[in-house]
């Protein structure tokens, strides 16, 4: 089996930081990735991809990035299924980030 994804894009918004009850650091972010082709109106569409970062990589992104930062991300896809109170099931995909490259030093926080 093979599950690996590489994305290059900009942060759509500032990353969100959480800490689990056991003290593990967790950050979530939305990566804005431009599609490699134009639609029928000649405009490039974008995909907004949910990403989850853990431990040291979460802290590093929180310290260095803000909305608009240009990132390269390597990770794996993972699905999560939720059931609503009316018993409807919803499945979402998110990227579990394993490595981040900061591609735009202009957006680095001091």
Description:
With 110 residues, the protein is mainly beta. It is built from 1 helix and 6 strands; from the N terminus they run ββββαββ. A 5-stranded mixed β-barrel has the order 1-3-4-6-5. A hairpin with a 5-residue loop joins strand 2 and strand 3. The chain is globular and about 50 Å long. This is Single-stranded DNA-binding protein. Pfam families: SSB. GO terms for molecular function: DNA binding.
What keyword list fits this structure?
single chain; about 110 residues; mainly beta; five-stranded mixed barrel; 6 strands; globular; DNA binding; Primosome_PriB/ssb; NA-bd_OB-fold
Question: In terms of topology, how is this protein built?
Answer:
Elements (H helix, E strand, L loop, with lengths): L4 E7 L4 E4 L5 E14 L5 E11 H10 L5 E14 L5 E14 L8
Parallel strand pairs: 4-6
Antiparallel strand pairs: 1-3, 1-5, 2-3, 3-4, 5-6
Query: In angstroms, what is the radius of gyration?
Result: 16 Å
Overall average pLDDT? 91
Q: What is the helix tally?
A: 1
For the biggest sheet, the summary is: 5 strands, mixed, barrel
Question: What is the compact description of this entry?
Answer:
By secondary structure, this protein is mainly β.
């Amino acid at each position: 089996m093979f599950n690996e994804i590489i994305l290059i894009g900009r942060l759509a918004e500032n990353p969100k930081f959480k800490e689990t009850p056991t003290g593990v650091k967790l950050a979530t972010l939305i990566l804005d990735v431009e599609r490699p082709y134009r639609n029928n109106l000649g405009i490039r569409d974008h995909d907004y991809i949910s990403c989850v970062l853990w431990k040291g990589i979460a802290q590093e992104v929180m310290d260095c990035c803000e909305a608009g930062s240009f990132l390269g991300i390597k990770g794996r896809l993972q699905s999560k299924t939720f059931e609503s109170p009316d018993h409807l099931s919803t499945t979402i995909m998110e990227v579990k980030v394993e490595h981040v490259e900061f591609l735009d030093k202009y957006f680095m926080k001091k």
